[in-house]
Amino acid sequence: MTAVGSPGALLWDVGNVIVRWNPRTLFAKIFKEPAELDGFLLRVCTMDWHGETDRGLSFADNIARLTPLHPHYAEQIAAWWGRWPEMFSGAISETEAVMDDLATRGVPQFGLTNMSSQAWPGVQAMSPVFGHFRDVIVSAEEGVIKPERRIYEIVLERTGLAPGDLLFVDDNVANIAAADAMGFHTHLFTDPAALRPMIQAHGLL
Predict the structure, then answer these.
(1) 142 with 109: CB under 8 angstroms?
(2) pTM here?
(3) pLDDT tens-digit profile of 124-134?
């Protein structure tokens, strides 16, 4: 679906758009052999498994479900939450600068993140730009995740805006496709340097 009109507000993803997150940042410290690291993330602590915390399951319960299936990796599995902050490598400065400038201009900014409600407070503390959000839809609090249609409907209900009013920035192709299908303006975030020119092209800066 082609978005109608010009956007007047931003809808931001968080992970790898505002702050850098990658489990490898942590587990490369734990596994010395690249092949074992790859196998662990492919077959043990997978993104599908992690996604259950994004839906609202506690880290403790998710870890407790997985550990008996891979008891020889019990310590490494526990590190998923026990050393969670080590998966992050700071905020993306280009995004922070754009968000600050949008706030100065009074452009409304909202968040839409697949994230555990346990993790969200710590992530917010990583950058002052999270203070620019007028509202944030956190998947674990809603029991639904991107790219499911319902979470985008919640965005519209909470913001009171139409899809064509919002410019959605996300680094995941499936999440962007789902928003496109509903008529949001979208930008697939792959290059931080491309963010500002894109925002300017939409007339928001």
Answers:
(1) no
(2) 0.95
(3) 999 999 999 99
